[in-house]
Amino acid sequence: MTELPSLTSVGSLGLQVNSGPQSSPEEVPTACSRPRHSLGILHASYSVSHQVGPWWDFTSCRQQWDRQILKDVSLYIESGQILCILGSSGSGKTTLLDAMSGRLRRMGTFLGEVFMNGRLLHKDQFQDCFSYVQQSDTLLSNLTVRETLRYAALLAVSRCSPGFLQKKVDAVMVELSLSHVADRLIGNYNLGGISNGERRRVSIAAQLLQDPKVMLFDEPTTGLDCMTANQIVVLLAELARRNRIVIITIHQPRSELFQLFDKIAILSCGELVFCGTPVEMLDFFNGCNYPCPEHSNPFDFYMDLTSVDTQSKEREMETYKRVQMIESAYKESAIYHKTLENIERAKHLKTLSTVPFKTKDSPGALSKLGVLLRTLGLYPEVARFGYFSAALLAPHLIGEFLSLVLLGMVQNPNVVNSMVALLSVAGIFVGSGLIRNTEEMSLPFKILSYFTFQKYCSEILIVNEFYGQNFICGSSNGSVTTNPMCAFTQGIQFIERTCPGATSRFTTNFLILYAFIPVLVILGIVVFKVRDHLISR
């Protein structure tokens, strides 16, 4: 047996990988006070089809380009375990997570079955069972950590008092060691803020608020230094020990992480080359006459062994045959048959009566819409919300009709898109008062602003949201002398400073704004008629 890096237990995880015989994680007893969940994926396949040419070319439209991304993938994992999915770029790791979480694109075809506690899940149930943390963090940079988690809790949990939500947020921050940065901004590249590792913890915490039993992570260590990446994986392993199923994809793991995973799966060209415990992996590849060299990282060695080298045609054929040989050996091994037996056993036993959905009191669409509107800080009146919606509808219609008018002049969609974008940006700079109000502009720009729909739309929105508002900053009397940073104490002051006289032009602005639509319609008809006349000549 080849020697590997020293594999000893880490913290409270209680894991140790030895070269001797080791019981399977399925046989390890757990506390009877917690129900043990199981996840089985049986013969999962996914393929996509693309048309060769554009839709108007009937000859090429009949031809399709098919690609098999996943091919007959079967996995089994129980709560309290963490599964690591290895594979080179394009091997299908992210697609496998998307298939389990119900995030696959509709244009593809998914075949296979996903079982939770032995019960077959329908596609519309995937997102209700699994929490998915993407590779890139989608966090708002201008919110603090506490505000971000509270915002996520409001969107995830309904019918709870504010005190209960705050306790839940505080408990999650303690669990993920975020309490010391609770009041710091998330930030970004320009604003600074928390570190990348802390940002990744916030993304994990946002999913923990729903108390998921199955958590999926797409390359959680990407963009992190070695020490931070190791801490994130240790954290995920600890989350798995708390009666959860954790599945992660990872690209270049360190050898020190080998001992943390209960199961390791290797994907190559969409096929499952191996899935088992670390000890089973060593024994399996030794049986295939591919022992891991001494003092080598087993992750790197086995990933290189199961990857297809496309540098040359000969090398590609050679490595592909090797991968096929290893994949065939795995399908014939006792490890693979044991996986299928565990899935069938879970289907027949069905030890748990229900499927562990994330949150049973998840708010509906209207409740989430209310949370979003409150976060925006719009003026809390139904009539003003109607004005707000009407003011936003007109620019969308104007943009569509403007594109049609330009398309009649320039028969190139790419040029038209660029022209519409440039005209929109120019209208914002000249007419919206973003840089300076129109009264302070030079006469040519002042005249030009009256021909931009952005001028009338922005004045409507400013009056709608600021008229009647009172601002308090500094002392209770709102004195500017007490707090020099308090530039405005009333909304009308901001209106007169930004767009003087807009209050008296509120109705007129609406009429002029919607007058752009029939004008562009008539102009579009004229342009297309002229173009047809020129073509007929």
Automatic annotation (TrEMBL):
Localization per Swiss-Prot or TrEMBL: Membrane
Keyword ATP-binding: yes
Keywords: ATP-binding, Membrane, Nucleotide-binding, Transmembrane, Transmembrane helix, Transport
GO biological process, one term: cholesterol homeostasis
Transmembrane segments: 385-408, 415-435, 510-528
Bias type Polar residues, positions: 1-25
Domain of life (superkingdom): Eukaryota
InterPro entries associated with the record: AAA+_ATPase, ABC_transporter-like_ATP-bd, ABCG_dom, ABCG_transporters, P-loop_NTPase
One CC-aspect GO term: ATP-binding cassette (ABC) transporter complex
Any GO molecular function: ATP binding
Membrane-protein topology: Multi-pass membrane protein
PANTHER family: ABC TRANSPORTER G FAMILY MEMBER 28, ATP-BINDING CASSETTE SUB-FAMILY G MEMBER 5
Family named by the database record: Belongs to the ABC transporter superfamily. ABCG family. Eye pigment precursor importer (TC 3.A.1.204) subfamily.
Name used for this protein in its record: ATP-binding cassette sub-family G member 5 isoform X3
Species, as recorded: Panthera pardus
